[in-house]
Queue: 2 jobs
Job 1
Amino acid sequence: MLDRLGVTLPIVQAPMAGVSTPALAAEVSNAGGLGSIGVGATDAGGARAMIEALRAGTGRAFNVNLFVHGAAKADPVREAAWLAWLAPFFAEFGAEPPRQLRTIYRSFAEDAEMLALLLETRPAVVSLHFGLPPEGVIRALKSAGIMLWATATSLDEARRIEASGIDAIVAQGIEAGGHRGVFDPAAPDDGLGTMALTRLLVRRTRLPVIAAGGIMDGAGIAAALDLGAVAAQLGTAFIACPESAADAAYREALTGPGADHTRLTALISGRPARALANRFTALEAKAQGRLPPDYPIAYDAGKALHAAAKAKGEHGFGAQWAGQGAPLSRAMPAAELVATLARELADARG
Ligand SMILES: Cc1cc2nc3c(=O)[nH]c(=O)nc-3n(C[C@H](O)[C@H](O)[C@H](O)COP(=O)(O)O)c2cc1C
């Protein structure tokens, strides 16, 4: 599969909406890995600009990633209750919560403009997170010669991916930073780790598997390959690269003692995601089972609270997504990081 893409290293830089940039992805693809951009948080116009910037930086294959979440159900009563609960935290920064919450991201499942853009620009790989689009969308992308990947966190999701005609599965373990790709956030979650999940999917599906979650160095990549994965997808490892869009506070938190602790929480966005432990994730103890509005409606409130806090110099309400391997993160240019990972991988494989 990687040969078909002209990718020489089994290293995928994870798509990270808001953090990965065209410059980061271009550096990774130029260094022999597969660079990715996440366009789940923007519209077709924003995605076009990112794809054009990436094409200007590399002639090699890259991956464009989309969110395929189920339609958010607006629930004014639940949203008002959530805003009322958050109000004291806003008040600490002399701010008020927004009066109303918006569905800030459109799902790719219902975004015809984004589909048209992908069919026109034809990135080598399109990867899907949170679920699968309608059959016709998958068929159209494949007919355009685009390779399709989708995230699975369980064998059941992987089977649905295989049945849909998708080309490869990203096995995302519970260790992973950022949002879990679970199809249905309300369903019970077994929280499988990267090792067990990768092995399950390699043995129980016929598709190539890309392992993701907690992989930070060449030894980790070698371990993923030993489990039968064709490549490893690393997100957290690339956040501290100068080419990422992470702000100074995020970088500081990631490379400081705080990186020793990550937490899974749905309070920030409405979907479970792993972040560095901070003031936002600590609200989990106070929420006492309170349910945030649906993703991405809750994220509108989360972003507003972060903005209010940041304006007063408090950075502890940022969505500082990171995986369990965060303490092993290294701040170095992406090309240097890929070369280091390749060297470590060669050493680990003897
Ligand atoms: C900051 C951040 C943002 C992320 N955003 C996305 C995204 O937009 N789309 C996606 O499919 N995965 C996203 N992920 C998850 C990654 O694809 C991948 O599963 C994860 O980074 C692997 O775990 P690791 O961070 O321990 O390497 C994100 C991860 C991080 C850390």
Job 2
Amino acid sequence: MIANPRTFPCPYCNQIINETMTQCRYCSTTIDPVAARLIAERQEKANQAYSDASYLRTATVAMYVFMGLSFIPLVPIVGWGFLATFVVVLVLLIRWQVKFGRLVTNDADYLRARRSWRLSLVLWIVAIPIGFIIRPLVYFMLRAATR
Ligand SMILES: [Zn+2]
């Protein structure tokens, strides 16, 4: 017996079953244990891809919050917050692509995670000109104006 059997959708009826079953509980199709383990592993990876993508999304939001706050010249420390989250988002983007980029599955959560990853990538790219060109420009203009 497996202590924590992994669950996955039955390849025939799509109901959620687990890898200890030799026969689908819903449609009674015989489940090949090797195939079951493969599907369960893929499902587990898809679930991981989903939760990693939600961390990435949180980091991307945090990056934009820091970037927005850093437009206020009185709080220079948030500029470092922006730089830190900018690096974190890049690392998470690469890590997700390396770990899950080639996963072949039609799992809805995985497809959602993939879209979320693409959106984070676009937002990260957009943050480059805003964070490193417009932001310092605004900062210097404000400094010049208050002098
Ligand atoms: Zn079934």
